[in-house]
Fold these 4 entries.
Entry 1:
Amino acid sequence: MRILDKEIYYCKSCKKVSNSLDSLLFIEEGSPVSFCSEDCIEQFYSPLVDFFNKEMTKTRSDMGLLDEPALDYLESPSLVQKHMKRPDEIYRFENQLKEEYYALVSKFENDGDEFEFISLCFIFNKAPSFIFAITSTSDAAFAALFKRGEKIESISDFYESQIATELQIDEEVMKNVEFKKNSFLAEHLELRKDFDIPFEKFEMYIDYFEKTLEGPDELYLGEDEEGDEQYIYIKAFEKGGTSFFYLVVCRHELSEDGEHNIVMPIMSFPTIDGDLCEHYRKGKQVSGSLKN
Ligand SMILES: [Zn+2]
């Protein structure tokens, strides 16, 4: 019975067999559905992506909202990022098979313009793991169509409190990291070129974050403008025939009990722009890879 000596898992998309859980990617919380690669995830769910987007377009068409001005706000990377990281409302839908879908809602205001970003997604580890559709609307009736199911009552319980207590990070440190995130983002937006990977696609690259931290091709240790230590991890990858870099800018913080070295990401992103990558090659190059 040598065939069954090892555990057997398989990619739900391409059916490739593996003997270990480590190499599998999970998208849905509490679900055994797993994949061997990002490409397989995209392929597997693409009919659902089409379904949700077609339904949305059809509904907009029925409601006379096809060219709603609020849709232009989706071109703002900082709003999209804010929406993904910290929505104002989360709704959870469950079918009879206990399959879960989530709707994230963020309320924004710009020059008296009120609008909401709405995403339909899966959530894994308290973060959106796969986005089926994202939209922006000023129409309360259209927005209401997504506010169904169970509303997650405490967003902060759902997100940040968990991170802070699990990692035992000092509140001041968290605030400082938030501040740095914002100034980094501003700088990044100035340097970004139009041909680069769009912000809405960043979620699809989330898997490269861990890989970059675990085995960077290049690692730099430098200081930011406030003189705080910062690490820059860079790794080259290929996805669907296109080469790109994944960058993680972070700090290494000691946990409150002084026992763990915690990586606090300030910013992470994929890019196909060599110049942008070059900009972040600053500080002293540290050889080898650091693990926490
Ligand atoms: Zn596969």
Entry 2:
Amino acid sequence: MAWFDRLRQGLSKTRDVLTTDIRDLGKSWEMAWDDLEFALIGADVGAKIAAEVVAETQKERERGTSFLGSLEQALLDQLEPDRMRQKLRRVGFELDVTRNMVEVNSKVVMVVGVNGVGKTTTIAKLGQYYTGYGKKVMFAAGDTFRAAATAQLELWGERLNIPTISGPDGGDPGAVAFDAAQARKARGHDLLFVDTAGRLHTKHNLMEELKKVKRVIGKADEGEPKEIWLVLDAVTGQNGLEQARKFHEAVGLTGVIVTKLDGTAKGGILLPIVRELGLPIKFIGVGESAEDLQPYDAAAYVKALLDLPQAA
Ligand SMILES: Nc1nc2c(ncn2[C@@H]2O[C@H](COP(=O)(O)OP(=O)(O)O)[C@@H](O)[C@H]2O)c(=O)[nH]1
Ligand SMILES: [Mg+2]
């Protein structure tokens, strides 16, 4: 299946770190467990979670499960805490994430994250994704602090035929978000994605600015935005976790999108995102084209990571 192949391909760098040594089990078991722990740390899951995964893998292996099968279970336990619900959802759709639209319990989705992580291109891809499910989408070009950021989103909007609300460069991002939230209501569109700045000019404080944008959206459309998604560049590894904590404290995140998994061996960063931040991962980016923004599915992710075949 095309999307699963793209996922496998996109995760190849992390997979190399994770499986080069552990597949070579001619060594003593003692060695293999150490190798596994190092490999996991190398993939940036963090020392504590790496030790947990090894212990869980050992336990499962003692029950008679194969080594890779045990590791798969141990990783899945970390990545999908609410497994029962996921299992139910998957009945009849075994591992075909493309058939299930990722639900958004919000009319307005604010997208935040530091400069260069992929916010604007991710918004464009999300626009394409939800348009494909028949949703009427709008964009707000809320990164008024970066020259050409508005033009970048407007261009995407034109290409995708998605209306884009923007203001002048250097203008007030709150004003853009307010206008856009009102426009969405007036036009009755299903979803508005609000792009935001990732860095400001020196005298401004990014987190205060984002809080203001959030408040202002609520003034234009009461109760919104119900969803605030953080875009995180996987290449930043453990540092990304620190970023996530700061954004979470400031605006209260409801989900994470991890981009650029194709460019890094640090794909293990998904484990601490789920475990330590307790935030759901909504989508993952495994390449630069629109199809490379994929709905996140823990089971598929682990299978792709360990090079296990997709379930029949
Ligand atoms: N390889 C790869 N590149 C990506 C991915 N997502 C975004 N990018 C690239 O990251 C760069 C920065 O993206 P941009 O949306 O401008 O970041 P922003 O500053 O957060 O808005 C662009 O060149 C994107 O094409 C991904 O999943 N994989
Ligand atoms: Mg941008």
Entry 3:
Amino acid sequence: MRRNLTIAAAAMALALGCAGTAFAATTVTVKLEDSTVDPSIKGMPMVVDRTSVPAGEVDFDVTNLSKALVHEMLIFPAPPAGQALPYDDAAQKVKEAEGHKLEETDDMAPGLHKTVKITLEPGDYLLICNQPGHYKMGMWSKFTVTK
Ligand SMILES: [Cu+2]
């Protein structure tokens, strides 16, 4: 009896493993932080648990850890080498349409968690927060998708 259960469990694990290899998305954990999370935090870090994933479906698990500020995460193709994302100095924001924004969480209240699912081709990307001023305060990360 016990042996049969073990075999069944092994078969199930094998089945799940195969499905996982073929279809599973890669999960990327993103934490949006500022000095309200911890006074020792300088600027506004976007903390990403991995900055490179294989091409295909990617689930960005985004949490706004701030105690006070709205943050968000937007995905842009990286601009060509030597160029910056188009920026609106008056609004202190990246121009989302001109920068060819691919996806976003929308505004996230303090403490909120959201998952953004997107299929990405190989290439270089930028993850940014586009609340006014946050991009220039360092709330962004490079991100690479490999073949
Ligand atoms: Cu922000």
Entry 4:
Amino acid sequence: MSAKRSNETLDEDKSKKPKLEDPKYILPKPVTTFPATLPDRKKNIEYIVNLLTKKDPSLTTPKLKAIEIEYEIAKKSSNATYKTIFRQEMYKLSKPPKPSPKILSKHEMKVREMKILKEWVIPKEKLIKFGYTMEIPKSEPNEKITRECCRCRTEFRLKQQLEPTTCEFHHGTRQKGKYICCLGDMNSTPCSKTNNHVYLLNTPGEKQALKSFQYTTDIFKTKSEYKVLGIDCEMVYTTEGFELARITAIDYFSSKEVLDIFVKPFGEVVDFNTRYSGIKEINDSFLSWDESMEKLGMVMDSSTILIGHSLESDLDIMRLVHTNVIDTSILFPNRWETGPMRKWSLKDLASKFLSRSIQSGEHDSSEDSLAAIDLVKHFVKKELDRKL
Ligand SMILES: [Zn+2]
Ligand SMILES: [Zn+2]
């Protein structure tokens, strides 16, 4: 009999571990410090039970746990300190536990960043609204024998563009009625003077007539190791209008420059636009158009996310139709700040969010690229912090 019973007990032990159960009545554990009366201690234990079950309704033995917690408090308090210590401990207990900061590996960080960047790629429809060329335009050459100077608004004969003349203009834009270059108003004497008039190719058709656009899906088919690039172009004025003269690309993740090439324009250079382009001459290091595109195709492919400020002009000047774009002029800071929708200059954004002064001297492609990348990084970091 006894042998059988012990067997049964063993079987029971195997299937059911003895369960802890809450006592029917709350009884504080004895302490020698006499911190409070028994009824007060009981009341406090009930209070803890409430708190515990509110925090975790699935708790099976809230009374046992509460008795333990109260006991720890009672042990270390005297009659004078019990109330205060109890209140302090209840405050700690009611606060949600601090989340332990997650430590992510470099790879995990990159995956998370990539996910955000992909979400920020601007939809095609929006790109079209902001002037991006999303389809190869029909070639429409400008047959007129004259052009309007984009600086001084003088009409000039195209054939005479290289003959010295006087072009007077303000090189800065106008803000609140004043030119930012010299703070002159509409009627002030222009602060800059050159010997030639210059012009832009204004319509997509005119651009297409000089050099065809190409879809990056057609020409950049080899997968690149760079998934996100900051890109920036510099242009010069030529007898063919405004042309590509330099491309720089910076890898988003390493901030390293992965491309910096100079491109030979098709027309004869009329003005190097040095103030903005930083270019002073054309030399042997300048690549042909096809060589340049080949080099660009080595660092990017059609799925590469390009980051830049008002990239529509850069893509147009490279005659590229590309859909994966993060444009800092469209995205920031309107995404985070309420207020009238307006385009911010890269200079203003860099100053406001990065406390960085750019474009103080000559324009530098890599400086601009890096500023656009760092702006995106700044906001990606904010987004990551928000999500963690
Ligand atoms: Zn001026
Ligand atoms: Zn002019």
